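ok so for the tutorial part 2 we go from a plain amino acid sequence to predicted structure tokens. step 1 is just haveing the sequence, like this:
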Amino acid sequence: MSNDDGLSKCTNVWVNELRLTDFDEPGGWAAVARMNATLADFGNLSVAANISTPGWGGLEQAVLERQRETVRGVDANTTLQLGKFFPDNLGVQLPLYLGYSEQVTTPQFDPLAPDIELDQRDLTPQRRRKAQTVVRRRSINFTNVRIDPEPNPNKQKKDKDKGKGKGKGDENKQPKQGAGGQDKPRFYDISNFSVSYGYNETYRRDFNLEFQLQKNYTGGLNYAFQNRPTEVRPFEKIGFIKSSPLFRWLKEFNFYTGIKSFTFNTQMDRTYETSRVRNNTAELFGVETNVLINTQAMKTWNWTRQYNLNYDITKALKFQFAANNQALIGEPAGVINRDDADWYENYRDSVWTNIQNFGETTNYNHNASLSYKLPFDKIPMLDFISSDARYQATYRWDRAPFSQDSLGHTIQNSRNLNLNVQANFLNLYNKVDLLKEINSPKRNNNNRQRNVRNEDRDGFGETDEEEDDRAKVNPVHAVLRFLMMVRNVSGSYTRNEGILLPGYGRTTQVAGLDPGFDAPGIPFVLGWQNTDLLGNPSGNFAVQAAENGWMVGSPFLNQQYAETFSETWNLRANLEPIPHLKIELSANRQESSNQNSFFRFDPELGAFDFQSPLQTGNFTASILTFATAFENDDENFNNAVFDQFLLNRLIISQRLNDESYGVPEPEDNGYYEGWGPTSQDVAIAAFISAYTGEDANQAALDPFKTRVAPNWRVTYDGLTKMPAVRKRFKQFNLSHTYRSTISTSYVTNLNYEEDPQTGLPVAIDASDFGNYIPQRQITNVTISEQFAPLIGMDMTLKTEGRNDPQVRLEVQRDRTMSFALSNFQITETRSNSLVLGVGYRFTEVPNPFFRSRGKLPVKMLKDTQVALRADLTIRDNVTVIRKMVERQNQPTAGQRILSLKTTADLEVSSKLTLRFFYDHQLTRPKISTAFPTSNINSGITLRFQLTQ
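step 2 — the prediction. this is what the tokens look like for a chain of 948 residues:
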């Protein structure tokens, strides 16, 4: 080497080799012992002990997953009924539960030297004790302790003696008894009260934790008063009211002199936990250091109070109120030191003062409802109507976080109005004897069929005397029956409203009100909203609260003020113009909205203000688009309904102009200023009027005021009443269903501006025409229509045997029109389908799996049945995009689908069914970008029923 200096060199090379040859896997063992003892009817005792050693585990566990410690445990508990020590007539219920458990875990390896077993180290008993993990639990509980004394036997004897000598009808009557054997329940009866107490203690120590002691105390008092108030009927004994059915409602008018029930429950739950980590510096470093380790303490004390009141004012008018209050009992910080007398005395005074003040309320909420059953059933000519109304209100108060008191508390309420009405017109018709006879015709009970000779019957056992089966038709009865087509009408109306107001600066004391009973006011805690019961504006609660000084004046509130509203109504009518022909009409409408904003103090304005308001909403309703349902496209996919939509825009533009600024002349393109062809208000109203077939001069300009129309379902099952049909069919039903709905949603348009005097829009958008910016920005309007089915037939054929073939035939149509306002395009999807279903059942088929010898886990059927089913569906659909601005129609998707689904079910036993299935689907697309497909799915499935 050219750079060799000629000096000797010395180096050391250390080579360590660690080779793993095998796992040390000695097996472990485990044992469990249990003892259960019943102490007559006094109680029971249960004791269990367990032990497991290192290496113990399940067969599925690997070596490294198995137990690496020795676990010893004992568990003992007993339940005693201490009330047995008291006389039975006192009715003392004093259940006691005692529990004790301890588990000691000794690790196989030393925690400070995880690769050395604990038994291989020469450690002192104290050091070995530190390595153990000990968990000890103790508990004592008294649950639902109460006294329910039996009735006084002397008093019962006196009551029995009083009953002697009475009339015959009184011999079985018993004196009324309430709680505690009293004649009438009393609110101060001791049996109305029950108490509970529980103490649970958990102690834990391990190598890193010197001790952790958690004590949990629970105590509760429950009061339940069930009353039987006296019923008063002030007009029951007045002569002309008592005898006249017209005054039945007044005769049965009643009220109760007291409440029905009242319950009160209060419960305290206190947890006190102390812990201290262990000083392991001597074991870790060899020298024990004076590390400052303090005992940590954690305290929580919750107090819950619940109230429930039920008051039946009358039989029809009922009031319910339920409230819940959660409070926190504050305790001084630090470890409780009973040795320091002065400190402990101050601690007790502080806690007791908080208890006397009912703690610091963190949450309060209540629910109040008033329901009323309208007295239609008491009025002779209106007793076919039943109706009930309900008013429900909720209120909630939430305390601000303790570290953010300056942001104020949060209050919210809600109001729910519900009305249900049902009219059974059949009961009304039956008040007239003639109409009752028409609605309930007498059945023909002649036995002429029994006297027909067998040779005069056909193969199905029927006769050819069709003329004798024809019922005599009374023209007057037929007309009256048709006029009574309305059989039942029902409806429901529901309205939900709510207010959420953050930044509320008052506390709560009684029923959600502040100590002065001023804020937030009785109307608000009973559900008052910014509208009255009829939906008319009645003020703004947030503004009133700010004016009354109930709000905190912080400009940093980060929780939004919110108002919610939803309204739903449904109508349903059942018609039967002729027997066996049933028509069901249904109509519904649902609207909802949410208003959100930051209601907080604005230093620049010097007042409270709604900042960043935003409103969203939804609308859904049943409508009628039957007039345009059968308008088909031509060979170029042009559609007359779409052309009418384009023309309707001119009419809608004129109507909007007449209702707003009234510009005398339109622009050169026929549209009025601000209401151009791409105006949201113009396009939506034109779209709805065109596809509903409504005159654009009469259609609603606001989509949320679209005229609601009924949908229907028609069924007819009277064909089998005809002799010619009855000979061949057991069942022959016809059906037809029509459904059509409109749905849309909106959000507040932040660019909207209006004239403060007239309320008309003034802001213009950036489109070529220059349209007025609407207040509500709607992105999509969808109309969905289904004939499901257009025509449906469900038939069951007659056969000589017990096998009845079934045939189902349905013709279905549906279409969906989705109008997107972002690109002014209508996506229309149309579908036509034909469904043919055939079913046949073979009975008394020999079971191929039946075996007369041998034992099987299931009982096979000797004779079984086979059910065959085949469904053929031919479906044709196409999707066309209709561009409003370009006036173009372009197909984007479409296909013809042929689907065949067949099944054969064989009952092997009462629990086991064998199914063979074959599904085949052919798809032929209508556009060049898609390919024909064919899918086949077949196989065998086994279905086993495990239930009895």
